[in-house]
Amino acid sequence: MIQNIKKTWYYFKRNGLAAAVAKASEQISQQSSERGYQVWLAKHLPTPEQLKIQRQYKFTNPITFSIIVPTYRTNPVFLRQMVDSVLDQTYPQLELCIADGSPDDSVSDILKEYRDSRIRYQRLAENKGISGNTNAAFAMANGDYIALLDHDDILTPDALYEMAAAVEADPTIDMLYSDEDKVSADLKQYFNPHFKPDFNPELLRTNNYICHFLVVKKDLAACAGHFRPEYDGAQDYDFIFRCSEQARNIYHIPKILYHWRSHIDSTAANPQSKLYAYEAGKRALESHLQRMQKQNNSGKPSDQNKSKDINLKTEVSHTSHLGFYRVQYIPLSGSHTEQCYMHIRDAKSLKPQIRTEIQQELTANCMRPEVGIVGGKTLYPDGRVFQAGLRRTKEGTYEPEFQGLKKRYSGYMHRADLQRCADSVSFDCFAVKRELLKQLGISPQDLKTQEDINRLCGKIKAAGYLVIFTPYACIRMKHSGMIHDEMEHI
C-alpha cells in the first residue's frame, strides 16, 4: 500500500492531478483483476507427475545451459533460494556460473554448503559493477546457451526443460524468452504477471518487455559483445537489442518460468529506486537506433526490395510511465507524403495543426524501410478507446485491441499508449506505401472497408514488412464520423 502511494505521488508530480487520479484508478482496477492470479498460477504450473515425466525425458540432442549470475552481498536466504531453484531444474544439463564481487565471504561460505559439480564460482578481486560481474560470469560459461538470472530471483522447476524442448523442436532458435511474474520477498505472494507477445521489435523500442527469462545462444551473445558498463542499470536492455539485431530466430515461450523477487530495494517494487536505469535505457535505445540507421543506409542483401533512400532522424523521449519511451521519426529533407497513400476519415474537418501532426506521424513511420503500413488510435466520443490496433484471433477474425478502455487509462502494461507491431490497423486512420501497394497488385481504390485493410495487412506481413500501430496519431469518432470540433491528439 505504501509503495503504491509513493508511486502515485511521484506520478502526480510529473504528470498532474487528472493523470495521477486516472493512473491510481487503473492500478486499483488491475489489482482487483489479479486477485485470482495465485489460484490461476497454481493450476498452470506443472504438476509433480509432469515434473517427473520431464526428469525422465531423453532429449535427442541435449544442449547445456550456462546460467549466468553476478552476486554482490546477496541476502543469504535469497541466495540459497536462487541456487535451489537452479539445481532443482527438471532438465539437468546445466552449469551455474557465479561471479562474486562481494568484499567478504558471505556468498562463498553459503556456496560451500552445496556439493554439486554444476556450480562454478569465482571470487572477483574487486566489484566490477553489474555489467563487469556479469561478463566475468559469462567468461566461465562452457554451455551452448547462456541464461540470465538475477541473484535474488527464482526459476520455476521446468524453466530449462521448456527452453530445451523449444530448441530441440527448432534448432534455428538462438534467442528465447518467457513470461514472468513478481513474488514477495518471503515467496508467499505471486502477483503482477507479465504475459508477453511473441517477438515485437516495435514494442521493444518502447520498453524492455522481454526482460526475464532470457536465454541466448552463446555464440550469438559473444558476437553481440557481452555487457557494457556504460549502460549499467539497463545493461540487459542494451544486450537484448544487440542480440536481437543479429538473431536468426527469436522464440517466445508463453509460460511463467521466472519469478522476479519484489522487495523495497528492487525496481520490481520501487521504480524510483533506480531512476538512473531509465536514463541508461534511453541511451541503449538511442544506440540501437543509430546502429539500425547505419544498417538501413548500407542495405542488407535480404532487404533489397525495401527502400533505403529515406533519410530519417530519430528522437527518443521518456513517456509519462517510468521506463517507457517514445521514438519519434522525422524526415530530414523534403516531403514524402506523395510516396504513401493516406486515409484519415473527415481529415478536412480537423483543426489544421492536429491534421498536420497526424499526417506527419503516419508519414514518417510509413516511410521507414521496414514498415509497410501504419495506423493510428481511434476513440469513442467520451474518450474511451475504440481501437488501439487490431489482433488476429485463432479463428482468423480481427478484433480491436483495448476496445472500451477508459479515458486516460493506458491498458495492460501501458500498451494502449505504446507504439508496437500489430496484426492490423484501423481503416479510419492509416498510411501505406504506394510502391508496396503496386508490388502487391492493390489499388488504393480497393481499400474501402476494415476487412480490406485486414487482408492488406496480412499480405504486408507475408511480404516481410511491419504493420505498425501508433498512439500518437489519434482521432475521436462519433456514430457517423468524426467530432469536428473536439479532436484529441495524444
TrEMBL record:
Q: Ranges for the Glycosyltransferase 2-like domain?
A: 66-191
GO BP annotations, alphabetical order: single-species biofilm formation
Query: Which UniProt key words apply to this protein?
Result: Glycosyltransferase, Transferase
The record ties this protein, via Pfam families, to: Glycos_transf_2
Residue segments, region Disordered: 289-308
Enzyme Commission code: 2.4.-.-
The highest taxon in the source lineage is Bacteria
A molecular function GO annotation: glycosyltransferase activity
Q: Give start-end positions of Polar residues composition bias.
A: 290-302
Q: Which PANTHER family match?
A: GLYCOSYLTRANSFERASE, GLYCOSYLTRANSFERASE 2-LIKE DOMAIN-CONTAINING PROTEIN
Query: What protein name is recorded for this chain?
Result: Glycosyltransferase
- Organism of provenance: Diplocloster agilis
